[in-house]
Design brief:
Blueprint (H helix, E strand, L loop, with lengths): L2 H64 L2 H11 L1
């Protein structure tokens, strides 16, 4: 085998190995980023739901059962 050809073949093989290593690294980072996004959005949705059912929903249900403040004001005005 020609020494120059052998050198080019070895250089090409080294470049292919380096390229493969870089591509695997990029793919691994993409998978980690995708997992992180899923976790972030899951926490965001679950946190929002928890906040709503813990703090907002009791206020809404209390407001519905007691009547609106404007309706109470109108009723008190009509009672006079």
């Amino acid at each position: 085998m020609d020494p120059e050809f052998k050198h080019l073949l070895e250089e090409t093989h080294a470049l292919a190995k380096d390229n493969h290593r870089l591509l695997r690294s990029v793919r691994r980072h993409q998978i980690v980023e995708l997992f992180g996004k899923w976790v972030f959005y899951l926490v965001l949705i679950l946190g929002g739901s928890y906040y709503f059912f813990q703090y907002v929903e009791p206020l809404i249900s209390a407001g519905i059962t007691s009547g609106s403040p404007f309706q109470n004001l109108i009723d008190s005005y009509r009672a006079q």
